[in-house]
Design brief:
The protein has 402 residues and is mostly helical. The chain has 14 helices and 8 strands. Helix content is 52%, strand content 5%. The radius of gyration is 21 Å and the shape is globular.
């Protein structure tokens, strides 16, 4: 009888757990998501749907691997760090060159994956990683700019600043400056970094909504821009998510002083406005941020993860009012309830991710409402998984669990 009773109790306990909230999972969700992604992608080179046998210097891959490595450090799980390291060891060649990377493209997206190399160089002392860091910094020094100093998003997107680009470039730029620059060179770098945030805010701000549009074209020549303002047509959720994360992750290196104060003010403005555009039932945000509730619009997880993560971290580091902490923790719980599901094999899945969206390019992407809602919606997109892991780490810290 006892032999039958013990398994029955285990089944009952498991059933009770499954009926509870996933955010109270015994195993931290940052760990569960990292393990789930490793199970789905035994090789880190296949993240973001890259075919087996191929390797690509990719901001989405780098973003998720940085988050997985951070989870490994936070919970002392060496396999997570080793998983991330395998990608960089594969793609960075003995001479410090990087497969598929070309500096001459001046693509800000290609700065982002280099962030993981700071810690990797610290751990290994391998000179090839420092070579890559120096190469990426050199790209920023030579990056094409508008007259007001704003970086072009890519050389093939002349005169365009995208909110996405602030995340791609500025946290790397800030960490490099703090580590390797000093004196006048450091001060010049900090001024340049802050200017990127201020310039893009001035050019993308929409006074009618209080939000920031996805991008603007300084030349006013692109078909997708308003000829008077240069702005794209909408505030896209993930673009503003990138921008909020970029502010928080850049300030963590530069700190708050008179020079960086404008970044803090922009961040606080974002979190004053965002509640107006959230879904009342779930607290989450829409794919087209400035069109809440419009037919065809949908609650989108990558943007929502970014907003929740940046809010939690911004409160912890003192960039946002401490009074926002309880609300930020509750939003994390709502995020998990809405977007994270548990699978029969014990893995977890992040649902409702916009796969990709942009402006112009080969697809002549228009930036209209109809365009944004037409892009594919998938599970477990790197651009959502990474911020979700970071949000989960912040939630654990806020709850005293880490």
């Amino acid at each position: 009888m006892k032999r039958l009773l013990i398994p029955a109790l285990c089944i009952l306990a498991a059933a009770c757990t499954s009926r509870g909230h996933l955010y109270d999972s015994a195993t931290p969700l940052a760990v569960r998501m990292a393990r789930s992604e490793i199970a789905r992608n035994p090789s880190p080179t296949t993240l973001d749907g890259i075919p087996a046998g191929k390797v690509k210097w990719n901001y989405t891959t780098g973003l998720e691997l940085l988050a997985i490595a951070d989870a490994g450090e936070a919970y002392d799980i060496p396999e997570f760090t080793a998983y991330a390291d395998r990608y960089f060891d594969t793609i960075v060649q003995p001479d410090g060159s990087v497969l598929t990377y070309k500096k001459s493209k001046y693509n800000l997206d290609h700065i982002c994956p280099g962030r993981a190399l700071f810690a990797l160089y610290d751990r290994t002392g391998d000179a090839r990683y420092k070579t890559v860091l120096d190469t990426l910094f050199a790209q920023l020094q030579e990056q094409p700019r508008n007259a007001d100093g704003g970086f072009w998003h890519k050389e093939v997107y002349p005169h365009q600043m995208w909110l996405d680009g602030l995340y791609m470039a500025e946290p790397f730029y800030a960490e490099y400056a703090v580590r390797y620059l000093s004196g006048a060179a450091y001060e010049k770098a900090v001024d340049d970094i802050v200017n990127q945030f201020v310039v893009v805010a001035a050019h993308t701000y929409d006074p009618a909504t209080g939000l920031y549009r996805h991008a603007y074209d300084d030349s006013r020549e692109m078909f997708w821009c308003d000829k008077a303002t240069g702005q794209s047509a909408h505030a896209w959720g993930r673009a503003m998510g990138w921008y909020a994360m970029a502010i928080v992750e850049t300030l963590q290196y530069l700190g708050v002083d008179d020079t960086t104060r404008p970044m803090v003010e922009i961040l606080n403005h974002i979190y004053e406005v965002l509640p107006k555009y959230a879904d009342p039932a779930t607290g989450m945000w829409y794919q087209v941020l400035d069109q809440p509730g419009r037919e065809g619009n949908y609650l989108e997880s990558t943007a929502s993860a970014m907003f929740v993560y940046a809010m939690l971290k911004g409160v912890r580091l003192g960039y946002l009012p401490v009074e926002m902490g309880a609300g930020a923790r509750r939003l994390y719980e709502k995020f998990v309830d809405r977007f994270v599901k548990e699978n029969p094999d014990g893995t977890i899945t992040l649902t409702d991710c916009c796969s990709v969206a942009g402006l112009g390019g080969k697809g002549m992407r228009s930036g209209t409402f109809e365009y944004y809602i037409s892009e594919p919606v998938i599970d477990n997109d790197c651009k959502g998984v990474g911020p979700f892991i970071w949000a989960s780490l912040e939630f654990a810290r806020a709850k005293g669990r880490l």
